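Appendix B. One record, verbatim.
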Amino acid sequence: MTLGRYDYERRYRRRVWAGLMKFGLLAALVLGVGLFAYQMGIEQLKGRDVTLREEIATLSRQKAELELLATQMQHAAKTAEARTAELEGRLQREVPTGDLAKLTQLVAERLKGGLDANRLGFVITQAQTQRNCQQADTKRFTLSTPLLKGGARGVTFANGAVSVSGEGQSAHNPQGNAESWFDPGQPVTIKITGMGGKSTSVTGVLPLHQSLVIDNNEYRFTIAAAQRSFVEVTADRCAYP
């Protein structure tokens, strides 16, 4: 009985020690694997840290370059704005506008047409605010239309020295049919002819204004719509220049 119990206890201790050894080996294996994985993780983190530092350095450099570029662009924009303002001011100072632009164009056209610059300058210098004009004369006549072309239509001024005539578009009745009288809401053409064949014309919606210089007189005309089919012409004759 004593021998059997001894063998049983010895086998039991052997199994315990064997189990402890297996557990120890397993724990050592797990610990080794854990240490290896930990070391690998550390190495990966180190590599990741190096990569991130390089990326941060690259991004910082790019940020500095972009900030420099933005500063340069802002400076260029301010310079362009200042240059634009300077050019606009110069344009306003040097390029004529309004009535001056019209006069400049007229002077250029006269010079291009062969008018002597000295003669043109003399006329300009002789022009005065107070003018020597005769009393205005007002007459009316029937304006020609596509349906009303027959006969002499027009008026004369200054004992026949200047004649005024014109034509317009036919008016329409409510049914849409053309009438013989002109439509004052549509453009008309007025022709002014002086002795010797000198003439000028103007086209537009009434009232219209036009001038014609003959010898030493300037005739200024205002043409306005009057009663149906008629236009009224007011003529001023002033000394020129």
